[in-house]
């Protein structure tokens, strides 16, 4: 196959990001993707980009594809709210739900340490760190109870009623979802009542507004997680949309909380941040946070950066809940986006969509590699390539020719979520 030459820029060191920072311009929302949840290079380059956006463009917070309660522990740590002597490794051990390596790794530890140092500087505006995801149903309910135990009133009563409703299911979201998926008697009204009661107490703790926001967000997670698990059991693409719509709702709340001048950096998989309208997801009626943000804030305010690589190694599990392992990632299949970029030259590259749009071949749907938390290299060609109109899905693309696996911590898994939670290529 003959590959048309593409316009690209070299990507060897941090200074090569100058053109990307310039192209981002005045965007308020910058989303940084990844083609797998287990590749060190994606985390390292996202860290380098995030540092520059914070230092040079005043970005206010980072929001990631992680659970709210666990990520809020990072937020407290980098803002100096944890007890003296707390180490970053202590904080990242909170990420004990499989797949633990997504946030419990040395690459994230380095970012968290840098954020804390940045916030400790007397001339720096504090930067936050938050989770956008929806999985932490029981953890969120427990954090609400802990928060409300310090105060009396209807909110505490509502929290107890919500928790009581879930007790028969032994903290197993899949068991709960199966029990209520096809009947009307469920816990939805209890968690909605909890959310409404918490909303009445917004001014209750003005000295620490983030504590109030944290309680309200945990209640919102409980509401949407309850809906998510039921939709998951019923099947179809509705659970995906519940999840990404929750992420977008959380993003909107965070931007409003931080004020009209706030700016956010988002770390998520390409399947979330790359505009779904320009993939085969659209035919299935699926949306994602990249699409929703463009629709709500406009293309000029949202900047989407995709990531990918040709070959290397990756951290993943051979099946759902399996021990993590370092796996070899074979060369991308012929005809794919990654194979095209490798064929041009075996070097790292930075590409901009406004330049790619001038190339007719780039304006066709191309197979674009996507690896999830479960991976089998022998079956890769059957489901690890997403048909994509690259120049429309992203605003820029970072290509790594040979990538290295993430460096994870060893964290004991608290529980195994059902395999339906992550699609095979996300």
UniProtKB/TrEMBL annotation:
<dbReference type="InterPro" id="IPR014622">
    <property type="entry name" value="UCP036794_erythomycin"/>
</dbReference>
<dbReference type="InterPro" id="IPR052036">
    <property type="entry name" value="Hydrolase/PRTase-associated"/>
</dbReference>
<dbReference type="Pfam" id="PF05139">
    <property type="entry name" value="Erythro_esteras"/>
</dbReference>
<protein>
    <recommendedName>
        <fullName>Erythromycin esterase homolog</fullName>
    </recommendedName>
</protein>
<dbReference type="InterPro" id="IPR007815">
    <property type="entry name" value="Emycin_Estase"/>
</dbReference>
């Amino acid at each position: 196959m003959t590959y048309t030459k593409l316009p690209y820029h070299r990507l060897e060191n941090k200074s090569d990001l100058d053109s990307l920072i310039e192209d981002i311009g005045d965007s308020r929302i910058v989303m940084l993707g990844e083609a797998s949840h287990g590749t060190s290079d994606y985390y390292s380059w996202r860290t380098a980009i995030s540092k520059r956006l914070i230092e040079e463009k005043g970005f206010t917070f980072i929001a990631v594809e992680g659970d709210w309660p666990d990520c809020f522990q990072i937020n407290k740590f980098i803002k100096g709210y944890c007890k003296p002597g707390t180490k970053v490794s202590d904080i990242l051990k909170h990420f004990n739900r499989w797949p633990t390596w997504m946030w419990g790794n040395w690459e994230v530890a380095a970012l968290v340490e840098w954020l804390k140092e940045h916030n400790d500087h007397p001339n720096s505006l504090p930067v936050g760190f938050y989770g956008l995801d929806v999985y932490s149903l029981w953890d969120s309910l427990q954090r609400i109870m802990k928060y409300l135990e310090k105060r009396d009133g209807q909110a505490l009563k509502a929290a107890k009623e919500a928790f009581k409703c879930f007790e028969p299911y032994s903290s197993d979201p899949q068991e709960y979802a199966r029990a209520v998926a096809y009947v009307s008697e469920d816990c939805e009204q209890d968690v909605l009542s909890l959310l409404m009661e918490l909303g009445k107490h917004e001014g209750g703790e003005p000295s620490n507004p983030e504590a109030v926001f944290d309680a309200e967000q945990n209640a919102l997670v409980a509401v949407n997680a309850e809906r998510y698990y039921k939709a998951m059991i019923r099947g179809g693409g509705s659970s995906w949309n519940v999840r990404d719509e929750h992420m977008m709702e959380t993003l909107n709340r965070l931007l409003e909380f931080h004020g009209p001048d706030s700016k956010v950096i988002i770390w998520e998989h390409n399947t979330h941040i790359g505009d779904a309208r320009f993939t085969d997801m659209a035919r299935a009626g699926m949306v994602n946070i990249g699409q929703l943000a463009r629709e709500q804030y406009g293309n000029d305010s949202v900047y989407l950066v995709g990531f990918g690589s040709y070959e290397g190694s990756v951290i993943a599990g051979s099946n759902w809940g399996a021990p993590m392992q370092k796996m070899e990632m074979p060369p991308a299949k012929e005809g794919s986006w990654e194979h095209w970029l490798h064929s041009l030259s075996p070097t790292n590259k930075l590409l901009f969509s406004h330049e790619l749009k001038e190339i007719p071949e780039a304006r066709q749907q191309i197979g674009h590699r996507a690896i999830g938390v479960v991976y089998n290299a022998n079956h890769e060609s059957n489901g690890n390539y997403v048909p994509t109109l690259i120049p429309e899905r992203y605003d820029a693309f970072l290509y790594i020719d040979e990538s290295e696996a993430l460096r994870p911590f060893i964290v004991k898994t608290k529980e195994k979520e059902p395999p339906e939670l992550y699609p095979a290529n996300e």
